[in-house]
Amino acid sequence: MERRLSAPIATSSPGARANEASQRRNSTVTNLRIFAHGKAKPGQAAVLRALVVDLLKNSRGESGLEIYEAFESLDGQEFIFSEQYAGEEALNRHMNTARFKEIMALISPIIDGEIRIWTVNQIT
Q1: Number of independent structural domains in the chain
Q2: Residue 45 near residue 100, CB atoms below 8 Å
Q3: Which residues contact 13 (CB under 8 A, 6 or more apart)?
Q4: 116 pairs with which residues across the strands?
Q5: Integer Rg of the chain from CA
Q6: CATH code at position 104
Q7: N or C: which end of the chain has fewer CB within 10 A?
Q8: Cα–Cα distance for residue pair 44/48, rounded to 1 Å
Q9: What is the DSSP letter of 86?
């Protein structure tokens, strides 16, 4: 499922998140996997990269956060997150940390367009 947000993930609608949670409950998913993509506005790539690094450092080690990686395009303008949580509760806990909210507020104005977010199931 793909979502496009002009605002950070933390402000996604409760209805959309409830629908996704219901879909996960009705499947055999044991972990919640998310991919997110954002592109820096012109001249903002270095600032965005620094915020991504800060978010990585402050998020790793959170309870229920199993994978938290970030990648950048070869030109340094686009960033992709790969995240895996033990479940919806762990994701909510992550999104409600003070530092996540602070960083997302700083990231939002320097993203070119929307943050694209996919919640997916792994094919095995």
Answers
A1: 1
A2: no
A3: none
A4: 4, 37
A5: 14
A6: 3.30.70.100
A7: C
A8: 6
A9: S
Distance CA 58, CA 54 (A): 6
- The tokens of 73 are what? 């395009």
3 state DSSP class of 116: strand
pLDDT, one tens digit for every residue, the chain (124 residues):
444 433 344 334 444 545 555 554 444 445 899 999 999 999 999 999 999 999 999 999 999 999 999 999 999 999 999 999 999 999 999 999 999 999 999 999 999 999 999 999 878 8
**Measured distance CA(107)–CA(102) in Å, rounded:** 9
Question: For 3-116, where are the alpha helices, taking DSSP H only?
Answer: 14-25, 45-59, 88-95, 98-107
Half-sphere exposure in the Cβ direction for 102 (13 Å, CA):
8
Distance CA 79, CA 40 (A): 8
Task: Note the maximum CA span of the chain.
Answer: 44
Count of H helices and E strands in the chain? Answer: 4, 5
Tokens of 41: 């506005």
